[in-house]
Amino acid sequence: MDIVVLHDPRSPTSRKVLELLEEEGHEPVLLDYLREPPSPEELRTILRLMEVGPRRIMRTKEPLYRRLGLDDPTLSEGQLLEAMSANPGLIDGPIVVTEDQAVLARPAEKVFNVL
Questions:
Q1: What is the CATH number of domain 4-110?
Q2: Could you tell me the sign of the dihedral formed by the alpha carbons of 28, 114, 85, 59, in that order?
């Protein structure tokens, strides 16, 4: 089973997720989402696996969120995904993705929900 982690190497939580996966014998594929942001379509796939809307994986308390007007409830999913892809600091991570599931691993132990 391939495991992909949208990973921020500076994040203690993200590093803990990696540690937990390795302790379980997994070698996940790490995607530094801040350096190489996922496309809107990749984000849409993750959301579909999580069965949530875009704001569930957005950092809604970031000043950029309000500055870009993303708190507007009339914005479409597509508009939110475009904003997240263009501004990956708005993406809350780490997000762990398998073939048929995904989870925002906060706290890190939520990684076990997809194993």
A1: 3.40.30.10
A2: negative
